[in-house]
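queue> pop job 88
queue> type: inverse folding (structure -> sequence)
queue> payload:
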């Protein structure tokens, strides 16, 4: 048991200036350390790793840190590309909160992100900041954020963040080395705990990391929501009649009085907002059956929305027709899904337009391949020409050394050059 406690306390932050490791937070009580590691906030861009640790709630912010530090757009893009070094260290995050500047930074380097797989493998959702909607997220950025977590969704930040119950902290090592420069003046996070009767100060000057959720008085960074005393169950009602709880099982939430998987809350709200007829005739007396039906609806919709058009075939069409029939039997009006399926079938198997398009695509691929071959051949020819010209210059210099300037002039002209010219 003591060995486990020592492992949990092994959390080090490495200075970016001198590389000297300091035991920054090992003196904290386990419950405080537990909260720090599972409710993590970073400000700036730097490499960081959490070894064998699972993060519940991660906040990634820039807060204007790069303002006025770069003169050109290219310099700024080069700096933002370092996010692809930092974010994989937070790959175990379940809930990822991004501020507006981070979103803008990722959108600025979207072409660079296309060559990287998603670093997040345990995501439940990505929370967008106020003023940013899902429509503004490009396909490339969506793939980068969600590609490693098939069931993850993108949601807009609610007015207040909810506390996420902490999970058991694993062995953690935070290695934080600044890529450009420190974040300026030392930043200190003060943790006040009434029952401990002491104040713990963590100096994060060279880390850019603010651990803001600590002790019995927990401060949520985004909206400054305070929770007093031991972990308290708290539910908050949203505009869509959706309840989420800070206590109990974090894998479930309440939607219109029904318990569903928490990852489906936002999807159900989006469906009810755009297609309210879906639930007009949905009624059930058995709560467990209701949960099963709602979860089945969301699972089917999630899977259907993420099928690539290149994977659509007659078998897939038939399979989803059966799925939608079953959803209709559950009491859901999924005519909007059926209509989309019919449209996909029509456009995917349209003849002769689709076959003609496929033929054109093949010709385009062949043309690109030939162009690439020509480009390679052209580059080789250019290099060969450059080498020959250099060799010619060298040879002419040897001739001039042996026969003088007249010799080099005669080689480039006629036999009588300069023979009868005036002195």
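queue> result:
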């Amino acid at each position: 048991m003591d060995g486990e406690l020592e492992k949990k306390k092994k959390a080090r932050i490495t200075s970016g200036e001198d590389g000297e490791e300091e035991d920054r937070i090992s003196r904290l009580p386990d419950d405080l350390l537990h909260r720090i590691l599972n409710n993590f906030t970073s400000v700036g861009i730097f490499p960081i790793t959490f070894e064998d640790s699972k993060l519940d709630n991660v906040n990634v912010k820039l807060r204007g840190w790069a303002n006025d530090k770069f003169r050109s757009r290219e310099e700024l893009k080069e700096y933002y590309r370092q996010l692809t070094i930092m974010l994989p260290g937070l790959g175990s995050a379940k809930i990822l909160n991004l501020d507006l500047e981070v979103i803008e930074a990722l959108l600025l380097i979207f072409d660079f992100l296309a060559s990287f797989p998603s670093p997040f493998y345990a995501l439940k959702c990505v929370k967008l900041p106020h003023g940013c909607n899902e429509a503004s997220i490009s396909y490339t950025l969506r793939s980068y954020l969600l590609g490693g977590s098939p069931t993850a969704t993108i949601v807009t930040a609610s007015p207040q963040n909810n506390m996420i119950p902490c999970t058991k902290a694993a062995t953690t090592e935070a290695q934080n080395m600044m890529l450009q420069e420190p974040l300026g003046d030392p930043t200190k996070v003060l943790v006040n705990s009434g029952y401990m009767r002491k104040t713990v100060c963590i100096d994060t000057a060279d880390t850019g990391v603010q651990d803001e959720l600590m002790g019995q008085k927990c401060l949520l960074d985004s909206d400054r929501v305070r929770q007093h005393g031991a972990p308290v169950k708290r539910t908050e009602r949203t505009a869509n009649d959706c309840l989420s709880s800070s206590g109990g099982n974090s894998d479930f939430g309440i939607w219109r009085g029904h318990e569903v998987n928490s990852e489906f809350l936002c999807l159900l709200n989006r469906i009810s907002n755009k297609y309210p007829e879906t639930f007009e005739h949905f009624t059930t007396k058995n709560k467990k059956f209701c949960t099963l039906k709602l979860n089945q609806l969301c699972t089917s919709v999630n899977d259907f929305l993420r099928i690539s058009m290149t994977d659509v075939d007659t078998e897939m069409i038939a399979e989803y027709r059966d799925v939608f029939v079953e959803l209709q039997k559950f009491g859901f009006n999924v005519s909007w899904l059926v209509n989309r399926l019919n449209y996909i079938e029509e456009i995917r198997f349209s003849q002769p337009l689709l076959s003609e398009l496929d033929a054109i695509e093949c010709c385009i691929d062949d043309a690109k391949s030939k162009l690439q071959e020509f480009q390679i051949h052209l580059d080789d020819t250019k290099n060969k020409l450059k080498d020959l010209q250099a060799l010619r210059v060298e040879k002419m210099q040897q001739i001039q050394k042996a026969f003088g300037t007249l010799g080099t002039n005669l080689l480039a002209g006629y036999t009588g050059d300069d023979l009868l010219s005036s002195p």
